[in-house]
Amino acid sequence: MADDQRSASGAATRSIDDRILASALDILKERGPLAVNIESVSADAGIAKTTIYRRYDDREALLKAAINSAKIEVDIPDNLSTYDTFRWLLHEASELADNVVGRGTAAAMLIIEDPESVALLREMIKVRASRLSALVRSRVDAGDLRADLDLGLVATILLGAVLGQIIRGGPVDDDWADAVLELLWPAFAAPSFTSPASAQPSDPTVLGL
Fold it and tell me: How far is C-alpha 104 from the chain's CA centre?
């Protein structure tokens, strides 16, 4: 009986913690880091401010916990071609931007309205970008990509393409991913490696032009 009660209590605590962090992330995505504070999270989650203060001393601690909770590792498929892997990565970047960063945070990072929060967010993005850089390096070693590729620049270009499309309200779908890669592939691929995409020019409306 005592074990059951401790188990139920632990589950309830995790549920409260999850609700607090989920609300903080939702506010972060929609309205940016400055909007994340004890009062706004309390109102959004329907949890008393005293309950939140028992877990987090201030908004900075709450915001840091919310950002850290979004550092989800992803397994990059190893059975895809180099081209299809880049295609997959564009979708993964869109998940990061849309479900973790969001338009509110993207805008805050552009204008740096809260330097400390922006530094935390950049660190989170670097974690994901480091996985991308490692993958690009392995494909360079395999001879699929140019030996002189700037790995950091590749990550910046792909993440920037996704963020730009999301901020503009455009879709991040297969057609868009193919159009982006068809544009970038000549700069990425080794001379002997060609893209499986159609040789026909992309429809500019797919890129949102």
Answer: 13
Phi, psi of 177 (to 5 degrees): -60, -45
Contact 163, 95 (CB under 8 A): no
Pick from 171, 196, 173, 172: which is nearest to 185 by CA? 196
Contact 93, 158 (CB under 8 A): yes
Give the architecture (CATH level 2) of 2-69: Orthogonal Bundle (1.10)
8 Å CB contact between 59 and 67: no
Structure tokens at 86: 């880049």
123: amino acid identity, one letter: E
Q: What is the reported pTM?
A: 0.57
CB under 8 Å, gap of 24 or more: what pairs does 135-139 form?
135/76, 135/85, 135/89, 139/82, 139/85
Contacts of 113 (CB under 8 A, 6+ apart): 32, 33, 34
First to last CA, the chain: 64
**pLDDT tens-digit series, residues 28-78:** 888 888 889 999 999 999 999 999 999 999 998 998 898 878 755 566 777
DSSP 203: P
Left, alpha or beta for 203 (phi > 0: left; psi -120 to 50: alpha)? beta
- Distance in angstroms (rounded) separating the CA atoms of residues 199 and 111: 39
Segments making up each domain of the chain, as ranges: 2-69, 82-188
